[in-house]
Amino acid sequence: MTMNRRNLLAGAGAAAASTLLARAAGAQSFPFVPNQRYPDPAVQILDPSFAKYRIYSSTVEQVATGMRWAEGPAYFPEGGYLLFSDIPNNRIMKFDEKTGQTSVFRANANYANGNARDRQGRLVSCEHSVTRRVTRTEKDGKITVLADKFDGKRLNAPNDIVVKSDDTIWFTDPLFGINGEWEGKKEKPEQATTNVYRLTKDGKLTAVITDIVNPNGLAFSPDEKKLYVVEWKGTPNRSIWSFDVNADGTLGGKTKLIDAADQGALDGFRVDRDGNLWCGWGSNGALQPEPTEVGGRRVFQLKGKPEDLDGVMVFSPAGKPLAHIRLPERCANLTFGGPKNNRLYMTSCHSVYALYVESHGAV
């Protein structure tokens, strides 16, 4: 092809568009710069027992950016990729470990929030607005509806999801996806309570928890004898409750395991093979009771500084704080991935961060 001014401009325009698309999808260059010093000071050890989980020469990396609210990470080892939700943009994203590129996996995703990989390697998702259902994406791409009603009434806004070793699917159903127009469509709830559900292989849906106000993240202990559930509101602080799991799938023995205090925000979390809880953390947006003088104005400021809270908190199985992984954005959710299941992926506001650790996700 003969190069002329028109071709040159067209080529430059195409290159610019490609770069913008890559950046919008969360690929290529970022403003974030990994810390150059080992060990990474972003990993703060709060208890000496955590030292064995820190890799001395590993640092926090930003692997994707350009989202509006990143959530629901799920890792697929067969393909070496991470799927996660960008809720306000109504899409599920895909980060490919081999290429380092991020692309749109599914547009018009019904404001999907939580995602998980089932035991057969299929994607299960919480569509937490518009459709308000739990779906499974088959290997051929077909979408199967697993649950959209309970007792003949529509679900609230399915939020987070986990698949147990017996192939039962457990998910939370708070109100966030129908509370406003930012993360979906504002609608009136039909359920009287905000529940945690258990879905069996034959399609039977049971409300196993009905007395938690807006349940959020959930996960099982490695032996699956405990179910942990975040209560977003009502205790009065955000908390993680521990439940005994009975052989028939019912729950008992409710105990408060972790209290986030009046300024911390618990959201999604995962459990490692040793039973430690790796929890998304940040400011809960609560305001100080009295305003302070800022630039000539009386401003109601946040309780606690987000820059001191944002990241991941790690707790022992007994609820003891072990570490804080500091991030420049609030972490909403996380998962373990990578070929060795030792790479922590953290979905955090606009970005996804990753950190190799000497720990492995419980599966």
Description:
The chain has one domain (42-356): Neuraminidase (6 Propeller), CATH 2.120.10.30. A hairpin with a 4-residue loop joins strand 4 (81-86) and strand 5. With 363 residues, it is mostly beta strands. It has helices at residues 5-25, 306-309, and strands spanning 43-45, 61-65, 70-76, 81-86, 91-96, 102-107, 112-117, 123-127, 133-137, 143-147, 149-150, 153-154, 161-163, 169-173, 195-199, 205-209, 215-220, 226-231, 239-245, 251-259, 269-271, 277-281, 292-294, 297-299, 311-315, 321-326, 333-337, 343-348, 351-356. Helix content is 7%, strand content 40%. A 5-stranded antiparallel beta sheet has the order 1-26-25-22-21. The chain has a 4-stranded antiparallel beta sheet with strand order 2-29-28-27. The protein is built from 2 helices and 29 strands. The active site is at 267 (proton donor/acceptor).
Brief write-up:
The protein is mainly beta and 363 residues long. 7% of the residues lie in helices and 40% in strands.
